[in-house]
Amino acid sequence: MNFFQKWKAIAVMIFVEFALAVVNALCKKVLNEGVNQLVITTYRLSIPVIVLTPIACFLERNFISHLTGRVVCSLFFSAVLGGTFTQNFFLFGLKYTSSTFSCAFINMVPINTFIMALLLGQENLNMKCKSGRAKALGTLCCLGGALVLTLYKGMPLINQSAPEVEVNHNIKSWIFGSSFLFAGSVAWSSWFLIQARIGKEYPYHYSSTAIMSLLGAIQSAILSLIIERNTSTWFLKGTLEISTVIYAGVVGSGLCYVVMSWCVKQKGAVFTSAFSPLIQIFAAVIDISILHEQIHLGSILGSILVIIGLYILLWGKSKDTENLTNPPTEKNGEAILPVTSSSSHT
Question: Are β-strands 330-331 and 334-335 bridged in parallel, bridged antiparallel, or unpaired?
Fold first, then answer.
């Protein structure tokens, strides 16, 4: 049982990252076929409301009595950051770059989350202990890997007869897309932090995800109607477009957000966001085998650095947990203070 409890959070987060990599690849496919990214986000956020509301009413029957004004306000900003901003920014960036390249900015989520948590006092960094140095080193490794992925393309490693699936190769479009991707990574990092607070005040994952999705769908629909007034863009054509929206809604915005909310409550925001780089690995496999995109040396080198940083960061977090459970009291005759956990902050 202890073994299962220890690895349960890791296993479900690996599943989440794989599911999100599939969502990313499918969305790139339909974007290339001309589907509006704002419409995708609106439909994607609407579907979890339909799916999760009956589940919430059955499993979380008392959730309405705990919906205070403060919780609703927090869910509104959670929808802005985790729904409207994150998904629209990433889809805008995905449209102007490539599937694998967009995942490089998801790799920056753990770095952004850790830095924001430090600034807000939700995370500690004691450079005098091994765990603190490990978290700092892991963050730097992830940052280095993300920079390699972004700035160094390198030679192609696989010869494909089909051309790469990329929209624009010119520098202006690439920078434009990169700006949206960076904004999306910052918004997603902010969502992890606000979700950590929501989980403590409102521990109902199904209803919170349903409410967040409803608010995000309304926000995205309003934004879509302001930017794109052509009503024909709301009609999906073809099995691939419909299947993509349904999968992205049920799995990407529904199940994955429920699992991530649970993991944030159990393990903290930094632990949960630290698995985001795994999307890069899964996306590369999908790009090569299904989308037939080219893979370059920079993607391999950057991914290796990111994964190394991921495990160093997780090791530092696990040492923090061990120090909380069994705090050392004396070493060489000197008293040692216990490490403060991020979960102790309110």
Answer: antiparallel
pLDDT class of 159 with cuts at 50, 70, 90: low
The answer to whether 154 and 301 are in contact (CB under 8 A) is yes
Spatial separation of the C-alpha atoms in residues 55 and 264, rounded to whole Å: 21
User: What does the pLDDT read at residue 104?
Assistant: 74
Rounded CA separation 101/165 (Å): 12
| Dihedral sign (CA 143, 149, 153, 157) | positive
**DSSP β-bridge partners for residue 330:** 335
Q: What is the pTM of this model?
A: 0.75
Rg (C-alpha) for the chain, rounded Å, is: 21
User: Residues 96, 276, 46, CA angle at the centre, nearest 5°?
Assistant: 65
- Cα(174)–Cα(239) distance, integer angstroms: 30
pLDDT for 228: 78
* DSSP element (H, E) containing 331: strand 330-331
Residue among 260, 271, 261 nearest 342 (CA): 271
Closest CA to 182 of 78, 281, 86: 86
Contact indicator for 273, 109 with CB cutoff of 8 Å: yes
Contact assessment for residue 246 and residue 82, using Cβ atoms and an 8 Å cutoff: no
pLDDT for res 218:
94
Other CB atoms within a 10 A radius of the CB of residue 32 amount to 15
Question: For residues 74 and 77, what is the distance between their CA atoms, to the nearest angstrom?
Answer: 5
Q: Which amino acid is at 254?
A: G
The pLDDT of residue 101 is above 80? no
